[in-house]
C-alpha cells in the first residue's frame, strides 16, 4: 500500500474526524497569494486571502525517511502541546501528488533563531537574551512534561516571531543524510555510540546548553571548525566546548556548562534549568577581563590555560580514540540506501574543494598520481614508526630518498607534483618535510615552517560528494587527519629546534598537546619526551605516564622512549630497557634497532653476542639511521660479528657522514687520512674532522687537534690544536684528555702546567700505560 492510499485510510479513521480540517485538497488553497520571498529551497510564504493570514508552506515527500506513521505520531504529540505559546502552530497538510505534500504552519516574522541572532544581535541586550533563553527552556519543559523528546534542537529548527520563540514538534525535516550537519548540538554520548545510545531527554538538555551559549554569543557554535566534520565530531566527544563570552552572567554560564557535560547523568533536569534561569539577575555580568579569564577556566580552552593546567586537563581528558568510523559508515550507508530508493538528489555532504564535477580522489590517485599517493602513505607510516626526533627524521629522509631511487623517480619532478597537486592540502605535511630536508628542492626552514603551519591549521574544507561514495569519505578524512597530526608535531619540533622560527618550547608543547586532543598516540610521545627533558617543571605529570600507555598499545616511538626511561635512570632497569627496545625494534624503529645492537655489542644487561649486534646494526643502518650506519661501519672495520672488510666499513661510514652523524664524519675522515677502504686524502680528512668537531663530537675535536698540531690537511697551528684538545677533553673523550695533558706537559700551545697534567690524568683509565715518548701517543700523528 503506497503512502497516498495509506493517508486516505487514516483519514477514514476516527482520529481524523476531529482533525480533518487539517487534511485539505490542493484546490482549497488556490485563493492564496504567494509572497515573492523564498524562505528556503523547499519553503515559501503564502498569504491566505480568505483567512487574511500569512503562513509558511514547506514541501516534503513521505518516504522511508519520514513515513506516514511518523507523521501520525508527531500529530498526536502535537495535540498534547499545541496550546503552548512557544510551540509552532501546525495549520494543515495538502496533498499535491501521489507522495508529495505541502506542510503548512504559522509564519514566523523573524525567521529562524540563527537568522534572528545574525540580524539583531547588536540591537538586543541581556534582558532580551534571557527572555529568549527562558522561552526556549519553557518550550522544552512543556515537551518533556508530556514525555516528548525533540531530538533535533538547533538554531535552524527554532523560530522567532516578533520576540516570541517557537519550536516545531514535527520531525519531517530530520533526514538521516543530515545526521552530521548539526553535530555541535548533538549529545556526544550518542556521537560516541551511534548504534547503541539513543537520544533522550538528557540529549535535549545538552542541545539546550549549546543553544544557550549561542544566544549569549550570537555566533554559530564552532563556526570555524565546521569544515571537517570528523575532526569536530572527535573533538566534541573528547570534551571540546565553546569559550565563554565576556559579559555573560555567571549563573547563566553555570547553567549551560552543566547542560553540555559529557556524562548525561550529570546534566540537570529541564525543571531545574527553568528554575535557575528565572533566578538570574541579568545585571550580574562579568565586567572585567580578569574575572572573565578566571571563569573561562571552567571550560577547556587551550589558549588561556597555563602550561600545567593545559597539560593536566588534556591528560585527564585524553582517552583511547573511540572507534567511530564504522558507526559513521553504517549511518551513511543507511542514508545512501534511502537516497537511492527515492532518487533524492538533495542528500549530499557539501564542500567547496571536492566538487562533484572534480575527479574522485581514488580515481585521481589510481592513475598518473598513484605514485605520489603511495609515497605519502610510505611517509605517514615511516613518521608514525620512527617518530619525529632529529635522528628519526634523518632516517625518514634517507628512506624517502631511497624509495625514490628504487622507483627511478626524479626528486625534483616529484616535489613539483606535490606542490602543484590538485589535492595539495592533503599533502602539506610531506611538502613541509621535503622543504625541511631538501628532497628535490633547496632546504628552506622558513618555507617548511609555513607549510607545516598550513597542515596544522583547522582544515579549510570537507568533501562535496554523494553519500554513497563512502570510500571517498573515508580516504579523504584519513588523509586529512594524518596530515594535520604530522603537521602539528612537525611544527612543534621546529619550535623546539628553532628552525625557521625563534625557539619557543611552550608553543611546541601546546602543539604536541593539540595533536593529543585529536587522538594522536605519537603526540603523547612528544609530550612525554618534552617533560623527560624538562624535569625541573614543578608538579608536572610524570613523563613516563604519558609514554607507557601508547607504548603498551604498540606505538614504536613510545616503546623506544619507555626503554630510554628504564635505561637512563627514571626507572633504572637495564633488563626492562632491553625488553622495551626490543619491542620497538621489532616494530621497525631504527633507533631502537641501534640500541639493541649496542646491548648485544657491549653486554648491557645481557650476554655479549657480536653476531646479533651486527644483525641489529644492519637493520638500523638499512632503516636509514646514521648512528646505526656508523656502528655497522665499526663492525666491518673491527670484525664485530662479521669478517673485516675495509671497503664496506668505508661505505657505511660515508652513508653515516652523509646522514649528518658527527661520529660517522670523524670515522670517514680517518678512512681518508690513512687510506682505509679508499684512497688517501688528508684534505678530505681535515674537512670531515672539522665538520665533526663543529657538530660537537669530542672524537672529531680530538682528531682536528691532531691535524692542527701535525699539519694534516692544513697548516700547523698549536694554539688551535690546544683549543680543540680542550674541547674534546670537556666532551669526555679519553684520547682528547690525554692529548690535552700532553700539551700541558710539553707546553704545546699553552704554558707548561704539571698540576693540570696530574688533574687530567686522574680522569683517564689505564694511566700507567701512558708513555709520552711514544710517538703514537698523539693519535695518528705519524700516519
TrEMBL record:
Pfam family, one: PK_Tyr_Ser-Thr
Example GO molecular function: protein kinase activity
Domain of life: Eukaryota
Stretches assigned to the Protein kinase domain: 23-280
PANTHER family: ERAD-ASSOCIATED E3 UBIQUITIN-PROTEIN LIGASE COMPONENT HRD3, SEL-1-LIKE PROTEIN
Record family assignment: Belongs to the sel-1 family.
Protein known as: Protein kinase domain-containing protein
Organism, scientific name: Gigaspora rosea
Amino acid at each position: 500500500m503506497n503512502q497516498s492510499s495509506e493517508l486516505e485510510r487514516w483519514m477514514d479513521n476516527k482520529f481524523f474526524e476531529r482533525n480533518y480540517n487539517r487534511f485539505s485538497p490542493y484546490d482549497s488553497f488556490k485563493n492564496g497569494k504567494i509572497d515573492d520571498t523564498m524562505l528556503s529551497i523547499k519553503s515559501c510564504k503564502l498569504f491566505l486571502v480568505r483567512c487574511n493570514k500569512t503562513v509558511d508552506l514547506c514541501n516534503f515527500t513521505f518516504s522511508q525517511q519520514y513515513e506516514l506513521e511518523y507523521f501520525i505520531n508527531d500529530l498526536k504529540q502535537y495535540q498534547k502541546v499545541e496550546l503552548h505559546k512557544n510551540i509552532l502552530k501546525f495549520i494543515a497538510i495538502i496533498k499535491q501528488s501521489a507522495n508529495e505534500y505541502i506542510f503548512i504552519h504559522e509564519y514566523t516574522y523573524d525567521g529562524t533563531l540563527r537568522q534572528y541572532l545574525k540580524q539583531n544581535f547588536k540591537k538586543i541586550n541581556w534582558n532580551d537574551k534571557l527572555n529568549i533563553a527562558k522561552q526556549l527552556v519553557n518550550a522544552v519543559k512543556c515537551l518533556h512534561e508530556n514525555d516528548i523528546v525533540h531530538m533535533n534542537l538547533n538554531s535552524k529548527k527554532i523560530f522567532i516571531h516578533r520576540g516570541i520563540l517557537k519550536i516545531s514538534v514535527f520531525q519531517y525535516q530530520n533526514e538521516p543524510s543530515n545526521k552530521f550537519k548539526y553535530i555541535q548540538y548533538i549529545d556526544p554520548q550518542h556521537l560516541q555510540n551511534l548504534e547503541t545510545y539513543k537520544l533522550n531527554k538528557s540529549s535535549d538538555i545538552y542541545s539546550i546548553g549549546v543553544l544557550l551559549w549561542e544566544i549569549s554569543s550570537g555566533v554559530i557554535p564552532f563556526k570555524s571548525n565546521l569544515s571537517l566534520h570528523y575532526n569536530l565530531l572527535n573533538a566534541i566527544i573528547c570534551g571540546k566546548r565553546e569559550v565563554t563570552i565576556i559579559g555573560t552572567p555567571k549563573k547563566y554560564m553555570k547553567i549551560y556548562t552543566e547542560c553540555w557535560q559529557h556524562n548525561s547523568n550529570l546534566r540537570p533536569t529541564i525543571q531545574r534549568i527553568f528554575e535557575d534561569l528565572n533566578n538570574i539577575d541579568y545585571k550580574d555580568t562579568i565586567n572585567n577581563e580578569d574575572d572573565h579569564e578566571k571563569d573561562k577556566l571552567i571550560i577547556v580552552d587551550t589558549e588561556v590555560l597555563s602550561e600545567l593546567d593545559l597539560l593536566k586537563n588534556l591528560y585527564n581528558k585524553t582517552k583511547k580514540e573511540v572507534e567511530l568510523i564504522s558507526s559513521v559508515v553504517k549511518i551513511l550507508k543507511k542514508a545512501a540506501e534511502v537516497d537511492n530508493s527515492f532518487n533524492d538528489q538533495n542528500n549530499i555532504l557539501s564542500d567547496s574543494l571536492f566538487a562533484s564535477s572534480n575527479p574522485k580522489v581514488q580515481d585521481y590517485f589510481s592513475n598518473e598520481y598513484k605514485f605520489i599517493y603511495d609515497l605519502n602513505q610510505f611517509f605517514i607510516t615511516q613518521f608514525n614508526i620512527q617518530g619525529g626526533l632529529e635522528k628519526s627524521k634523518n632516517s625518514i629522509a634517507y628512506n624517502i630518498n631511497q624509495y625514490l631511487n628504487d622507483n627511478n623517480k626524479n626528486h625534483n619532478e616529484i616535489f613539483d607534483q606535490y606542490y602543484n597537486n590538485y589535492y595539495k592540502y592533503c599533502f602539506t605535511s610531506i611538502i613541509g618535510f621535503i622543504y625541511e630536508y631538501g628532497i628535490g628542492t633547496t632546504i628552506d626552514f622558513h618555507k617548511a615552517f609555513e607549510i607545516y603551519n598550513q597542515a596544522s591549521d583547522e582544515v579549510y574544507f570537507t568533501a562535496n560528494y554523494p553519500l554513497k561514495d563512502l570510500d571517498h569519505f573515508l580516504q579523504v578524512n584519513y588523509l586529512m587527519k594524518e596530515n594535520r597530526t604530522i603537521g602539528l608535531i612537525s611544527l612543534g619540533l621546529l619550535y623546539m629546534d628553532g628552525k625557521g622560527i625563534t625557539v619557543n618550547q611552550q608553543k611546541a608543547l601546546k602543539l604536541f598537546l593539540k595533536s593529543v586532543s585529536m587522538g594522536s598516540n605519537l603526540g603523547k610521545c612528544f609530550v612525554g619526551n618534552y617533560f623527560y627533558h624538562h624535569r625541573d617543571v614543578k608538579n608536572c605529570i610524570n613523563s613516563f605516564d604519558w609514554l607507557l600507555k601508547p607504548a603498551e598499545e604498540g606505538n614504536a616511538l613510545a616503546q623506544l622512549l619507555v626503554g630510554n626511561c628504564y635505561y637512563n635512570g627514571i626507572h633504572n632497569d637495564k633488563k626492562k630497557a632491553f625488553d622495551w627496545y626490543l619491542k620497538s625494534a621489532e616494530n621497525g624503529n631504527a633507533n631502537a634497532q641501534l640500541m639493541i645492537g649496542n646491548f648485544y655489542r657491549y653486554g648491557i644487561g645481557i650476554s655479549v653476542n657480536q653476531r646479533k649486534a651486527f644483525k641489529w646494526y644492519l637493520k638500523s643502518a638499512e632503516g636509514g639511521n646514521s648512528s646505526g650506519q656508523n656502528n655497522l661501519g665499526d663492525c666491518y672495520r673491527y670484525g664485530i660479528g662479521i669478517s673485516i672488510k675495509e671497503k664496506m666499513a668505508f661505505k657505511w661510514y660515508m652513508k653515516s657522514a652523509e646522514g649528518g652523524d658527527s661520529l660517522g664524519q670523524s670515522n670517514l675522515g680517518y678512512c681518508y687520512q690513512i687510506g682505509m677502504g679508499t684512497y688517501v686524502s688528508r684534505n678530505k680528512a681535515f674537512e670531515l674532522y672539522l665538520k665533526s668537531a663543529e657538530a660537537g663530537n669530542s672524537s672529531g675535536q680530538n682528531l682536528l687537534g691532531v691535524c692542527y698540531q701535525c699539519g694534516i690537511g692544513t697548516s700547523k697551528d698549536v694554539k688551535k690544536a690546544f683549543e680543540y684538545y680542550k674541547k674534546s677533553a670537556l666532551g669526555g673523550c679519553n684520547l682528547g684528555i690525554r692529548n690535552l695533558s700532553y700539551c700541558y706537559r710539553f707546553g704545546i700551545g699553552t704554558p707548561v702546567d704539571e698540576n693540570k697534567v696530574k688533574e687530567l690524568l686522574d680522569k683517564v683509565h689505564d694511566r700507567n700505560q701512558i708513555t709520552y715518548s711514544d710517538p703514537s701517543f698523539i693519535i695518528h700523528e705519524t700516519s
